[in-house]
Amino acid sequence: MSDAPDGDELTAAEQRLLDYLEALRSRPPQADDEIVTTVVRAARWHALARPYLLAAGGMGAALVAAVAALAGSPRRA
Amino acid sequence: MDPDRQLVDRARTGDLAAFEQLVERHRDVVYRVGARMVGPAEAEDVSQDAFLRAFHRLPSFRGDAPFRAWLLRITQNAALNHQARRRPEPTEAVATLVEDAGDGQERTPADRLEERERRERLEGKVRQLSSTHRAVLVLRDIEGLSYGEISQVTEMPLGSVKGRLHRARGELINLLRANAYDWGLPE
Fold first, then answer.
1. Which of A74, B151, B166, B174 is the most buried if burial means most Cβ atoms within 10 Å?
2. Alpha carbon B133 to chain centroid distance?
3. What's the whole-model pTM score?
4. Dmax over Cα atoms in chain A, in whole Å?
5. For residue A45, what is the DSSP state?
């Protein structure tokens, strides 16, 4: 993964720190297999709902614009 | 050439099977970065959030950077949002651990317990880093990304990445030195 060495000399403390961090790298947290299923199921639902949400959002925006136009229109004496 | 390009193009047209392959391909690195940034308890939420954000933003993905770098940028932001919404982690108790048992000896359960506690303490300290420092340190020193890829993830110039990494290591060293547990970091 790494393609570039550290440009500067490391201090002794930095080198020790990297040794500690290497221990973290060697024991990575593991993702649950379920995560793919969960994400794809949610994405499928979002994809299905998106047109309706966009339509509802459009209607809401039109309603707000209409109310704003009415509220902003000059009153008759 | 971005190895994900074909899948991304298909996913952009609504091909969920292609999106599923992208999730399968990148779930481990997304989960790991999430876990390093916010802790294992919230890593799954962060991962799901990141993938769904990516799904919604696919139409705006221009391909200036590889998909993986773009996805990790979204992951980083999702992690920071999660962290901003929750309470800070409790500060750790005073260390009661024993020192090294010595080289060449068979590792006892106590040694393994100490190693595990040391790892967990270190993970906690990484999560205490400022958000900008944490991201570059996790990506470089734990995930082993190249400076070039980190530059793409963080949208910072290469020189800034190196400078920030140097400061991140300094911040972590200071956090460890201020810890009751003796990390044996030379001056």
1. B151
2. 11
3. 0.80
4. 83
5. H
With beta carbons under 8 A apart, name residues in chain B contacting A38: 48
Contact predicate A42/B48, CB 8 Å:
yes
Rounded Cα distance between A15 and A19, Å, is: 6
- In sequence order, the 6+-apart residues with CB closer than 8 A to the CB of A2 are B140, B144, B145, B146
Q: Which helix (H) or strand (E) holds B30?
A: helix B16-38
What is the CB neighbour count within 10 angstroms for residue B100? 10
CB contact under 8 A, A38 and B48: yes
Q: How many CB atoms lie within 10 A of CB B176?
A: 20
Window 39-98 of B: residues touching A by CB (8 A cutoff) are 40, 43-44, 47-48, 51-52, 55-56
- For B72-132, what is the HEC assignment? HHHHHHHHHHHHHHCCCCCCCCCCCCCCCCCCCCCCCHHHHHHHHHHHHHHHHHHHHCCHH
Q: Where are the domains of chain A?
A: 32-77
Contact A42, B23 (CB under 8 A): no
Give per-residue pLDDT as tens, B26-50: 999 999 999 999 999 899 999 999 9
For chain B, domains (ranges, CATH) are 5-85 (1.10.1740.10), 109-177 (1.10.10.10)
Sorted by sequence, the CB contacts under 8 Å of residue B67 that are 6+ apart come out as B2, B4, B5, B7, B8, B22, B61
Q: Please, how many CA atoms are within 13 Å of residue B1, restricted to the half-sphere of its CB? A: 4
The whole-angstrom separation of Cα B29 and Cα B45 is 14
